[in-house]
Write a structure and sequence with these properties.
Shape of chain A: globular
Largest sheet of chain A: none
Order of helices and strands of chain B: HEEH
Oligomer: heterodimer
Helix content of chain B: 55-70%
Structural class of chain A: mainly alpha
Order of helices and strands of chain A: HHHHHHHHHHHHHHHHHHHHHHH
Number of strands of chain A: 0
Helix content of chain A: over 70%
Number of helices of chain B: 2
Number of helices of chain A: 23
Distance between the termini of chain A: 19 Å
Structural class of chain B: mainly alpha
Shape of chain B: elongated
Strand content of chain A: under 5%
Strand content of chain B: 5-15%
Chain lengths: 544, 56
């Protein structure tokens, strides 16, 4: 999440103490730290760890961070600023500028599809968080004292909230099911239309320390759980930690694990996501993109590994077991943590409510940031007003999100989008970006651009990593995945009509976005190939 | 948890926490410089705040 990214001009000059009230350096740290937390860290990461074999996932994960995450974060921040200084603020415009041809613009359309499609399920998970918080506050969660019964009830509650028992279950539940989704969706669109209010920004600034305290309490409780169910002595904390950290080299030859690890890094760093490329395009020539990208990446890792990993994965193992923890990438935090909170005695309700409410707040600023680049692109392509762009955006994401909400059996639509967009598309886009930077823009020009205004220099080894290692790494993993696992995934699409239709709809949306990218290109040419009207409008307003 | 697991966990956490601490130290240690727009006066160095990018 971010406290400052909602407003394109706000991201351009957000840094004066007078403007943002960062009167102390601790204020800066809290704002930076607040930006590092989202559902990707606390919910998606544990789900990916468990789905990919626990300890088998961690080694590829750290390799991806060092050889892909950090360098491509530098690449994306640098390319975005370069584009922004030349009047481009959408991924379509920036990749078109860097590539110097329309192919770059068409790949840029992928960078619009990614945040839009991810938003369609992300907003649903936000609604789950809000509903859990409400249930804790209103006393709707009481899972009893017996551990197996508690786990069973926690799962049943999640099945009811997510509707994963059958398609249309959430809608059949009535207003309680669909109401939270509608409230969250509407709230998101209002925030995008008006810009995040300073009140919410300020709230996030004090809410973040509260979340750290809350997460620390939960972490301590998880690490002191011991063996909560004496009937199953192997389900204890040490074995839970071992499940996460014992190196498992047996799956290192599985390309899908490496793919999932790289995609998780990209997802949580928002690299190849279409967000940073919009956000960082408002930075100035003298801004330090090197230290900024590295600090954001490091903080992200801190929260992901410390809280996302140690809390949720350990708790999931202790209460659900290694095999029982499977069942949807984002489900783990919802099925295992309530069992942990129940161990807190009288603190169960306040801690449970605070955890899910703060998770909701962390998520909402992220989801708003996903809508901003799409909105900017719609304005750039269609030349429409901000209001019209938000209405169009609302219709697009509401339709897509309703699809995910309705086809909820086994969370098939959600997991399909998360894999094909949240994993594959992000992976491809990150590859395009690093090739554009290292080979099209040129590594020397690119690094010179990165070092402009930077106090911190990129280590020389990263010259080789960006130009050779990262593209080769991405290519090897992708080819390995295509050979080993793609036929299986395609077969699964054929067997599950909803999954196939979900991918089909995403492809149709991509084609439409490519068509709009062509239109945006024509508009840019008509305007003298400088800055689009939307860019100029956005950059001149406090609340676009 | 195996000995390898302990080493992997403690080493990984030390690296991640160390990198984070080092970055925060650099952000806080970065000198301020005058803004291009004089009306804003001296401001935090961009690195101090630009790190706050959106994260999913």
């Amino acid at each position: 999440v971010s406290t400052i990214h909602d407003n394109p001009r706000g991201t351009s000059v957000p840094t004066t103490p007078r403007e943002d009230g960062w009167r102390t350096r601790w204020g800066v740290i809290l704002a930076v730290a607040g930006s590092a937390v989202g559902l990707g860290n606390l919910l998606r990461f544990p789900g990916q760890v468990v789905a990919n074999g626990g300890g088998a996932f961690m080694l590829p994960y750290f390799c991806a961070f060092v050889f892909l995450g950090i360098p491509i974060a530098w690449v994306e921040w640098t390319m975005a600023r370069r584009g922004g200084l030349r009047g481009r603020h959408s991924a379509v415009g920036i990749l078109g500028l860097i590539a110097g041809n329309r192919v770059g613009r068409y790949f840029g359309a992928l960078a619009v599809l990614v945040p839009a499609a991810i938003y369609m399920y992300y907003v649903l998970i936000e609604a789950w968080c809000l509903r859990y918080a409400w249930a804790y506050l209103s006393g709707g969660i009481d899972f009893g004292v017996d551990v197996p019964e508690r786990v069973r009830q926690a799962r049943e509650f999640f099945v009811r909230v997510s509707g994963s028992a059958e398609h249309g279950a959430v809608i059949a539940e009535g207003s309680a099911g669909i109401g939270f989704w509608l409230v969250v969706l509407t709230f998101n669109l209002l925030l995008v239309h008006r810009g995040l209010s300073r009140g919410i920004e300020a709230f996030c600034r004090w809410a973040f320390p509260l979340m750290v305290v809350c997460a620390s309490v939960v972490l301590v409780r998880v690490l002191t759980l011991g063996t909560p169910d004496p009937a199953q002595p192997h389900l204890n904390v040490l074995n839970g930690l071992g499940y996460l950290w014992n190196p498992d080299l047996s799956r290192l030859g599985d390309a899908s694990v490496w793919l999932a690890a790289a995609a998780q890094i990209f997802f949580s760093l928002s690299v190849g996501f279409g967000i940073i490329i919009n956000y960082a395009s408002y930075m100035r020539a003298e801004d330090d993109v090197v230290l900024s990208a590295l600090s954001a990446s490091a903080l992200n890792e801190f929260f992901e590994v410390t809280f996302g990993g140690l809390i949720t994965v350990t708790a999931a193992f202790v209460f659900l077991g290694a095999s029982g923890a499977l069942g949807g990438t984002f489900a783990l935090g919802f099925t295992s943590l309530p069992a942990v909170f129940a161990q807190l005695g009288s603190w169960e309700r306040p801690i449970g409510a605070a955890w899910f409410l703060l998770l909701f707040l962390a998520a909402i600023t992220s989801s708003v940031s996903m809508l901003q680049p799409v909105k900017a692109f719609l304005r750039e392509a269609l030349g429409c007003s901000a209001r019209a762009a938000v209405l169009l955006l609302g219709a697009l994401v509401a339709t897509g999100s309703f699809w995910v909400l309705y086809f909820s059996a086994d969370l098939v639509a959600l997991d399909t989008l998360d894999f094909w967009i949240g994993t594959i598309a992000i992976f491809v886009l990150a590859g395009v970006e690093v090739v554009c930077f290292g080979w099209v823009l040129g590594i020397d020009r690119g690094l010179a651009e990165a070092h402009q205004g930077a106090m911190l220099k990129i280590p020389r080894i990263y010259r080789l990593i960006i130009k050779y290692v990262a593209p080769a790494y991405l290519a090897a993993v992708f080819i390995g995945f295509c050979v080993q696992s793609l036929p299986e995934y395609l077969h699964a699409l054929g067997k599950r009509p909803v999954a196939g239709m979900t991918v089909g709809l995403a492809l149709i949306t991509l084609v439409a976005l490519v068509g709009m990218a062509r239109r945006a290109e024509r508009r840019a040419l008509e305007l003298g190939d400088s800055s689009s009207a939307a860019d100029r409008d956005d950059s001149g307003q406090g609340s676009p | 948890m195996s000995v390898g697991g302990w080493i992997f966990m403690l080493g990984s956490l030390a690296c991640v926490w160390g990198l984070t601490g080092w970055c925060l130290h650099r952000v806080l240690d970065t000198p301020t410089h005058p803004a291009r727009d004089g009306s804003l006066g001296a401001r935090q160095h961009p690195a101090s705040s630009r790190s706050a990018g959106p994260r999913a």
